[in-house]
Structure formats: structure tokens, C-alpha cells
Design a protein that fits this description.
The chain folds into 2 domains: about 30-150, Immunoglobulin-like (Sandwich), CATH 2.60.40.420; about 165-330, Cupredoxins -  blue copper proteins (Immunoglobulin-like, Sandwich), CATH 2.60.40.420. About 45% of the residues are buried. About 5% of the residues lie in helices and about 40% in strands. The two termini are about 10 Å apart. The protein contains 2 helices and 24 strands. Strands 1, 2, 12, 13, 15, 17, 18 and 20 form an 8-stranded mixed sheet that branches. Strands 14-24-21-16-19 form a 5-stranded mixed sheet, with no helix packed on it. Strands 4-3-6-9 form a 4-stranded mixed sheet. The protein has about 325 residues and is mainly beta. The chain has helices at about 135, 175-180; strands at about 5, 25, 35-50, 55-60, 75, 80-90, 95-100, 100-105, 110-115, 120-125, 140-145, 165-175, 195-200, 225-230, 235-240, 245-250, 255-260, 265-270, 275, 280-285, 300-310, 315, 320, 325-330. It is globular. It binds copper (II) ion (CU). Copper (II) ion binds near residues 249 and 251.
Length: about 325
């Protein structure tokens, strides 16, 4: 196996702009610390859901005319300075927050440069903490990965190693809440999520509109579906931007569970299901792309699912099955 050092990341649903494709982001180790810059435009708009209903979202987008949920990830290294320019195109004030690292407000219609030192190696959710949790649920969230200073294949110095990495951000959507927030009013009904997304998309099973379209179908999206050959150890940085806790289940292999909510686990367990805490829970795991041990006769290629084992998340619109938070794993 050829060792590959690249990151898979990409755009989610976009409105009024051409999707950016899979957006493979290269990463290579460098001798010097650097300033990593990214500009986000806080925008809003409607994103169609699997049952055809268009729901209001806000996002940290790559252009003033687009809408991206979640934001494009930021990748930095320990020692770097991270410089995020936030252009708030909306009229209300919003924030750029990473818990324990930075929190800066950006008034409506203004631009603010948020500069901070990269925190220690690991995975971080950035989000708008204004009117928590509402703006986070509306889509104002994204991921920051900080690589160790000296290596491009470890999660933190001395961790188990990987060959490629992905970001999976989960969210739960209650359209009644989103509609209420669109009117700048506070939700007054219990939280009843009807859509469940991974990197902003839901599954589209065979026969459904959008099936197989990587811009729409979470089972085929370039930034969610895992692709690898046997031995291509794959780090997955998982984030839960939503209000519901989840149980994440991989088929084919167990994952090596490295961290939970930002803390390295004392023992690396190999598990097929892990718990995702709600409200900004995180996990880092390695999907090892080992030959699927339970297959007979033995195989080295094939497609397997990753889905959540809390059943509501596998539906959309209150019952459409296989239109929820799931993706596929391709042994190539
Ligand atoms: Cu399963």
C-alpha cells in the first residue's frame, strides 16, 4: 500500500452557487509554523430535505452568495496561528466560538478577524454560540483539525497512526424550530427532529431522487463515504452539532476508539458501536480497513454501511427509511 497523506473534506448543500466538488485538501508536514487563514461568510437560505421540504439554515459559507452547512474544515498544526475572517452578511450579531479556545462576536453587517494560536493536537468544533443552541443547530458550525507539530499521520503525538482522514459532523433538524428562528423568534415547541444529516446530507436509497449523486446522497458523498484498500487506516473525526445523542455503528471492521470528547481514552478499545454525546460531543476513531473478518469466503473488496443505531436517525420526514444519517464504506 502506498502511504497517502491527504484529507478528505468538502462542501455540503449549497444554495445559489456551484458545489465545490469533493475538495480533497492536501496536508504535508512543514518545518516552520505558519499562519493558516480562512474566510467565512455568515449567510442563510433554504436547503431541500429528502421529503422535498425546504428548510431554513444559516452557515459559515465560502462565499457571500452561497450557503454551506457545515463549514469547510480548517486544518492547522500545533504552533500555527489561525486567522479566521468572519464576514457577517446577516443583520443579527453572531459569534465564532471554539470552547476553551476562542469566542468573538461579529455584529450584523460587519467583518471581524478572529486570530488565535492553534490549540493542542486534536479535533475541535467551531460554532456560533449566540442564543445557544439555536444558531449551532441552524448550521453555523464546522470542524478544526490541529495536527501534531512533528507528524502528519498521528492524531496526537504518539497516537496510533493513520493514512487518511475524514470529518463527519452530525446534525438533527427540527423544521418547526428552524422556521421559528428564521423569524428571529425563540422556538416554543418541544424539539422534534425530522431530518438527520452527516456533513449536511442525508442518505438517498436506490430509486430515490438523488441516489448516487455525491452532492446530495450521504452514502456517496466524497467527504463522508470512506474509500480505501485493505490497510488504508482511516482517521474519522466525529462531531455532534445536534441536540440528540447517537450510537454510531460501522460494518466490516471495528474501529479503534482514540478519543472521546477531546480526551484520549486510557485504553484504545476496538468497537463496532460508539456513543456520541449530544451538544458538541466528539470522538476520534480509526477505521483500519482490515480485511472484513467475518466474510466467508474471504474478501478484500466490497461495500459496507455505516449507520446510526438510534432508529429515528435512519429516517426523514417522520418515517422515510434510509433517508437519514448514514454513509458507506468502500473496500476497493
Ligand atoms: Cu448496523
Amino acid at each position: 500500500m502506498q502511504r497517502r497523506s491527504f484529507l478528505r473534506a468538502g462542501t455540503a448543500g449549497a444554495i445559489g452557487t456551484v458545489l465545490g466538488g469533493s475538495g480533497l485538501l492536501s496536508w504535508s508536514p512543514r518545518a516552520q509554523a505558519a499562519t493558516v487563514s480562512h474566510t467565512y461568510y455568515i449567510t442563510d437560505g433554504l436547503i431541500p430535505q429528502p421529503d422535498g421540504v425546504s428548510v431554513y439554515f444559516r452557515g459559515f459559507s465560502d462565499s457571500s452568495g452561497g450557503l454551506q452547512v457545515p463549514a469547510q474544515p480548517i486544518i492547522a498544526r500545533e504552533g500555527d496561528t489561525i486567522r479566521v475572517t468572519v464576514v457577517n452578511t446577516l443583520s443579527q450579531s453572531h459569534r465564532f466560538t471554539i470552547d476553551g479556545v476562542v469566542s468573538s462576536s461579529v455584529s450584523g453587517g460587519t467583518t471581524r478577524v478572529v486570530q488565535f494560536s492553534a490549540p493542542s493536537a486534536g479535533s475541535y468544533l467551531f460554532y456560533d454560540s449566540t442564543s445557544e443552541p439555536y444558531n449551532r443547530l441552524l448550521g453555523l458550525h464546522g470542524a478544526l483539525a490541529v495536527m501534531p507539530a512533528s507528524r502528519d499521520d498521528e492524531l496526537y503525538a504518539g497516537s496510533r497512526r493513520f493514512d487518511q482522514q475524514y470529518f463527519w459532523i452530525l446534525n438533527d433538524i427540527d423544521p418547526a424550530w428552524h422556521d421559528r428562528l428564521r423569524q428571529n423568534r425563540t422556538p416554543s415547541t418541544p424539539f422534534v427532529p425530522r431530518y438527520f444529516t452527516i456533513n449536511g446530507r442525508s442518505g438517498r436509497p436506490p430509486g430515490a431522487p438523488g441516489n448516487g449523486d455525491p452532492d446530495i446522497d450521504a452514502m456517496h458523498a466524497h467527504d463522508t463515504a470512506l474509500h480505501g484498500q485493505v490497510g488504508d487506516r482511516t482517521l474519522i473525526r466525529l462531531f455532534n452539532a445536534g441536540l440528540a445523542a447517537h450510537s454510531v455503528h460501522w460494518h466490516a471492521n471495528h474501529v479503534e476508539w482514540l478519543t472521546q470528547n477531546g480526551v484520549p481514552r486510557p485504553d484504545v478499545w476496538e468497537k463496532d458501536i460508539i456513543y456520541m454525546r449530544n451538544n458538541r460531543g466528539t470522538n476520534d476513531v480509526i477505521f483500519p480497513f482490515d480485511r472484513p473478518p467475518d466474510a466467508w469466503p474471504p474478501v478484500t473488496t466490497g461495500a459496507y454501511p455505516m449507520h446510526l443505531h438510534d432508529e429515528m436517525t435512519q429516517t426523514a420526514g417522520g418515517g422515510l427509511y434510509m433517508f437519514g444519517a448514514m454513509t458507506d464504506i468502500y473496500f476497493e
